[in-house]
Amino acid sequence: MLRYILKRLFAAVPVMAVVALAVFSMMYAAPGNPAAIIAGDTASAAEVAAITAKLGLDRPFLERLWVWVFQMLMGDFGSSIFSGLPVTTMIGQAIEPTIALTISTTLLAIVVAIPMGVIAAWRVGTWIDRYIMLMSVAGFSVPVFLVSYILVFTISNELQWLPVQGYKPIADGFIPFLRHITLPTISLGFVYIALIARMTRAAMLDVLSEDYIRTARAKGLAEGPVLFIHALKNAAIPIATVIGIGIAFLIGGVVVTESVFAIPGLGRLTVDSVLRRDYPVIQAMVLFFAGIYVIINLLIDLSYALFDPRVRY
Amino acid sequence: MGGVLLAIIVVLIVLAPWIAPFDPMEIDPIMRLRPPSTENLFGTDALGRDILSRVLWGGRVSLFVGFTVAVAATGIGLSIGLLAGYLRRGDEVIMRVMDGLMAVPGILLAIVLMTLTRGSITAVVIAITVPEVPRVVRLARSLVLSVRNQTYVEAAVAMGTSEPRILVRHILPNVAAPLIVQATFVMASAIMIEAYLGFLGIGTPPEIPSWGNMMAEARSTISIGLWAMLFPGIMLALTVLAINLCGDRLRDILDPRLARRI
Amino acid sequence: MMTSTLTVDAFAQATTLKAAVHSPLRIIDPVSNVARITQMHGYMVYDTLFSLDANGVPKPQMVGEYSSSADGKVWTFKLRDGLAFHDGAPVTSEDAIVSIERWSKKDPMGGALLAGGSFSKVDDKTFKLELSKPFGLVLEALGKPGTYAPFIMPARIAKTPHDQLIQDATGSGPYIFKRDEWVPGSKTVYVKNPKWVSRSEPTSFLSGKKEANIERVEWVSLPDANVAMSALQAGEIDYYEYPPMDLLTSLEKSKDVKLVKVDPVGAQGWIRPNHLYPPFNNEKARQALLLIVNQEDYMRALGAPTAYYHPYCGAVFFCGTPLASEVGTAPYKKADLNKAKALLKEAGYNGEKVVVYHPTDVPDMDMGAKVTVSLMRKAGINVETIPMDWGTFLGKRLNKAPPAEGGWNVYASLDFGNNMMTPTTNLSLITACDKATAGWPCDEEMEKLRAAWLAEPDAAKRMQIVNQIQERFYKIVPYIPTGQFVRPVAVRTNISDVNATFIPVFWNLKKN
Predict the structure, then answer these.
(1) What is the largest CA-CA distance in chain A?
(2) How far apart are CA A20 and CA A283, in angstroms?
(3) In the beta sheet, which residues pair with residue C483?
(4) By three-state DSSP, how is residue C8 classified?
(5) Does residue B131 contact residue B110 with C-beta atoms inside 8 Å?
(6) What angle do CA C451, C457, C458 make, to 5 degrees?
(7) Per-residue DSSP letter, C350
(8) What is the Cα–Cα distance from C312 to C332, expressed in whole angstroms?
(9) Average pLDDT over residues C138-147
(10) Which pLDDT tens digit goes with each residue over C143-171?
(11) Domains of chain C as residue ranges with CATH
(12) Which residues does B contribute to its contact with A (CB < 8 Å)?
């Protein structure tokens, strides 16, 4: 098991290298210059050139790449060109809101989507099935920001049940945390619920036609236990896979949600850095996302062993 | 149902030059933010442009982006998938690069690409296509690998059939169905990402009306001119819904085996 | 028990002010960076030697006593007692001198001041300025508001080269920057400076009494305007610095919210033509742009209610300022497309492609570009727009290549009165060819007039020069004003003492 994990982590090294090189090259080629942003919109070319030189951004490609890689190998991910704060600090600040939002959305999606999928599979072909499936396709089809606005205007503005915007860390108390994270979670949840519900239904359909389910039913077990214990356990692997894929997907989705609800998370930090060409931050962020992706995929594979005793690493 | 809906939308959009009541680009600040009326059925936006006309014209752009991305991503993905899965050339390297691309959240990659290649609708298509390609490659490669080992393919190889012929006669027909189904989902997702890029202010050029642009522009006036966001939003949702439903249906017909999957 | 908790809560509530600001603070160096948010940050943490009052007259701020020799060539300044930086160190004359010197390398007014003079230390609190020839605006320069304000920092920080950003926000101003709570891109926190000593004169504009009444000021960035408005209405924030003009009417109507004109002068939009290439290397073509622009179109497109904009403002140094003038504006008050077309023809324009740079992610600039493009097309100009994000724009704008090879002909922007209201601080007015800002206007006459204004000690004569400048402006047209509007701040009604200060400041504010 440990050997397997190490092997997988080692295999991730080329992936990360590809990501690092690709992002570095794209940032190098992108028009725009952070020095011009520092100098502002009334600066002359000479001023901008002076700042560019001070930042070392006039150096050749290979030299800049080497400096970056070398510093990273020494454990230094650099600092923001603008704020001067270490990139690790900035990611550290932004990580909690995004992780909290990802976890809450995943939990919401699992709690809602799995019963939806199971029921649809159980009543396959009936109007219940069709209705649930239509709802889940519809969940894919509405832009996240539109859902967000509708929620803000109804729940927050009209009914005044929940705050309009912002994020409260769990350290400030669970209730304030929950009140702030509910609307972003719901708006982000739609797509994700749709994804998991569809997968659950498909996996359950496969399992429900198996012999042992028929046996269990023949033995006179109630439908509830048959569906939610026997069948669901055996349908777990594809569901776990799609939950994992969904988490990577969510990290992209938070970009929009964080912007609407003013949540100081990773999505906003990345967009902000890209638009302002804060190279050290962008490069570190993308590597960080890639790292999360690798780890999630590893966790999915490990979870197979949990759900299916035949799988051994 | 999806098909009918999609057909209606496509017809409306194709007819835009004839049925749109106004020039979608005509700015008239005096007419700004008029609510829906008999003159402007969907109201006007913050620059006084007719929203119905813009929704019709904008649909062309959104559908164009969706369709082009679907075709491009599938074409490129299939080619790379064949290269890796059938010819087995550079398989290892290709798959590592694809892993790398997939490891970056799609929308972020698209945002980075937009800063790189700004200024045209082509740039939008490229920025949305690139993140979609690896997913297609993976699917294509795994399909090719499984078909390749089927007895009839091995028989064809043994009989000395030429490689291009095997590709066209045996491999492509067998991988086509799942890829076509996948393409519909890529199309739906591309239309959505176009809207997200517009929302972040870095999407389709503002000269070209698209649903994404319209919603982005309506963002700051949503509390006093909800219609400016709602109509393109509804059209986009209906279109994406219709495409997704078509994709589901297509999958049921083309590939009953796959129908059990997502 | 119950009551005491409530009081503590109420107390904590009353002393924190949450403000939604137009942009998150990303750079903390107000001398190297011109971003308005960085200037606002400057006024939180730093103090200045002099500050302007409501009549534009410089009043001593950090300086206690000062004097000048009869010939105006030697000035002596003495810092007032009790000034200390946030780290506890007293403010010395060395700090003041090093800070002014760093500032003078960035600021044109500071540059002009120190071009003919130098500062020297007399004792720990006293320093003097010796000039080779009299300079009309010594105190105005030292009390200059807005972009490149001469903030006083500790000498150890001010020694940083001017083209490198400082990383330490230690100042002597009313608020202390909480670096450990700073989340660049979304949140900035300031706490009251316990050692702050306010002056006692009545507050007037940026001068006089500046009291830090609020214990803690939090700036948050709410990228979505409607969410910000809702947050203000719900009391989640107390202060909304930059409401879109479109929402003013809704805000005016909502209870518990009031609008305050912190910046009574406001901002002007303008179009910058590239003076290097046809058609706009010809002044007739630039005059044609003046005739194309219907300022009211721009103002309406921004959604400004009529009370918040001038139907027409042609004053180069803004309407409603000491230097406001009508000279030269008469032919351009009304847009006239036919006349514009004729002028374009005279300028030799014949349907060639005109490239417009269009930054799409800054709403005000986006709107400006859209209206400009639409008006130019109506005048028969063959426009091609190149959309880009603001970060790309700032870099590409400096590209001197011909428009067909990646350069540009026109872009639209806007700036605030506190930056543009004098001939020296209005950087877009520089016509020094290569040394001018992007657009590179070239006119010796204008440069002479600008220099003459700065050197002229007599206020009445300065105003004459202003009129000459404006006359020249409407002949050579360095840029085209597209209208002046005032954007008020929206605050909860329990916030009082929000004064007119040009740039939003958070001293003197009270939360009841």
Answers:
(1) 85
(2) 7
(3) C269
(4) helix
(5) yes
(6) 115
(7) -
(8) 10
(9) 90
(10) 998 888 999 999 999 999 998 999 999 99
(11) 28-211 (3.40.190.10), 267-485 (3.10.105.10)
(12) 96-97, 99-108, 111-113, 115-116, 118, 188, 192, 195-196, 199-200, 202, 215, 219, 222-223, 229, 233, 236-238, 240-241, 244-245, 248, 260-262
B26, B27, B49, B121: which to substitute to probe chain C, counting the most C Cβ within 10 Å?
Answer: B27
User: Cβ contacts of residue A167 below 8 Å, gap of 6+?
Assistant: A97, A100, A180, A181, A261, A262, A263, A264, A265
DSSP string, C262-307: SSSS-EEEEEEE-TTSSSTTSHHHHHHHHHH--HHHHHHHHT--GG
CA separation for the pair B132, C154 (Å, rounded): 53
Cross-strand bridge partners of residue C44: none
Output the pLDDT for position C11: 47
3 state SS of C416: strand
pLDDT tens, C437-487? 899 999 999 999 999 998 888 889 999 999 999 999 999 999 999 999 999
d(CA A226, CA A212): 10
A162-201 pLDDT, tens digit each: 998 889 998 888 999 999 999 999 999 988 898 889 888 8
Q: Measured between CA atoms, how close is C341 to chain B, in angstroms?
A: 20
Residue A293 maps to a domain: yes
Task: Answer whether C280's CB lies under 8 Å from C256's CB.
Answer: no
User: How many domains does chain B fold into?
Assistant: 1
Q: Which residue in C has a C-alpha nearest to residue A92's C-alpha? A: C183
Distance in angstroms (rounded) separating the CA atoms of residues A57 and A67 = 12
Residue C479 near residue C184 (C-beta atoms within 8 A):
no
CA distances from C164 to A50, C97, C211 (A): 9, 19, 32
- Residue identified by tokens 């992209």 is A252
Query: Among C89, C31, C91, which residue's Cα sits nearest to residue C62?
Result: C91
The model's pLDDT over C62-87, given as tens digits with 9 standing for 90+, comes to 999 999 999 889 999 999 999 999 99
For chain C, how far is it from start to end, CA to CA, in angstroms?
A: 24
Which residue in A38, A147, A270 has the most chain C C-beta atoms within 10 A of its own C-beta, making it the best mutation to test that interface? A38
Q: Which residue type, as a one-letter code, is found at position B212?
A: G
**Cβ pair B220, C244 in contact under 8 A:** yes
Note whether A14 contacts B: Cβ–Cβ < 8 A: yes
My answer on whether A152 and A223 are in the same domain is: yes
- Domain membership of residue A1 (yes or no) is no
Q: Quick one: CA dihedral C280, C281, C285, C289, positive or negative?
A: positive
Place of tokens 């440990």: A2
Backbone phi, then psi, for C410, in 5-degree steps? -150, 140
Secondary structure class of C136 (helix, strand, coil): coil
CB contact under 8 A, A39 and C227: no
Q: Is A43 helix (H, G, I), strand (E, B) or coil?
A: coil
Entry field: residues in chain A: 313
* Whether residue A153 sits in one domain with residue A54: no
3-state secondary structure of C313: coil
Give alpha helix (H) positions in C429-499: 444-455, 459-476
Compute, in degrees rounded to 10, the torsion defined by CA atoms B149, B151, B152, B153: 30
* Residue C418 scores a pLDDT above 90: no
CA C470 to chain centroid: 20
CA C441 to chain centre: 22
Whether residue A14 lies inside any domain: the answer is no
User: Residue A5's pLDDT is what?
Assistant: 85
Print the domain residue range for A45: 34-76
The tokens describing C130, both together, are 């010796």
Residues of chain B positioned with their CB less than 8 A from the CB of C222:
none
Residue C91 per-residue DSSP state: P
Q: Is residue B17 part of a domain?
A: no
Dihedral angle over CA of B126, B127, B128, B129, nearest 10: 40
Tokens found for residue B160: 């000395």
Number of H helices, E strands in chain C: 16, 20
